[in-house]
Predict the 3D structure of the following.
Amino acid sequence: MNFNSKIAAAGAVGLGAIYLVLGLATGHSARSEVPPDLSASATEAGLDVWKTAAALLSDKERAQVVDVRSPEEYARYHLPRAVNEPDAARLHELAVRGGPLIVVAAKDDVAQKLVAEIRARSKHASIHYLIDGPRAWYLAFELPVSMFAEASSPNGYEEALATLKDFWMKPEQGAKGQALEALQSLARMNFQPTLLKQSGKPKAAGGAKKKISGGCG
């Protein structure tokens, strides 16, 4: 390697190091900027909360959320724009009529059985279920996660969450593109309430016990 080549190599390494330091300082990296794939494949029966939210933001065929829990459970807490339909026969009619459906149930085994039965009867039915039901949605978008996490919230977390929640509340006034970007950011961060997953009674950060307000069925 000649002298000029050594200088070029050293310069490349130096620039790489600078980019790494800036990335760590700002909470960004080249990898973190790649949008996660939140598309749902036809073979997937269960969808995580990020893919479920993405399906509700789709420009092609926006999914319809069908909550099969009791009217009382639905009234306590439900996903945005979800309809309550405990009747399995009616659920099949909705699936056959067209448009993707996402089933929300109190237990995954209930949702799995409904989706499997409808898929078996109607091969072309586009139907999935939300894994972990309304609890997954509540933990991702409603719970003040920073109160139940050991680590501090990532840069941009609160802003992204606020953008998405504003869109759910007033979709006619919100910008769907911004909401999708916010969702992708949240999916990349995947900020979790780790203190709730530890053994024993959950405690909020700082040692004080906190009560989770709002039921999620």
Observations:
- The domain at 46-136 is CATH 3.40.250.10 (Oxidized Rhodanese; domain 1).
- The longest strand covers residues 64-67.
- The beta strands are 46-47, 64-67, 83-84, 101-104, 127-130.
- DSSP finds eight helices and five strands in the chain.
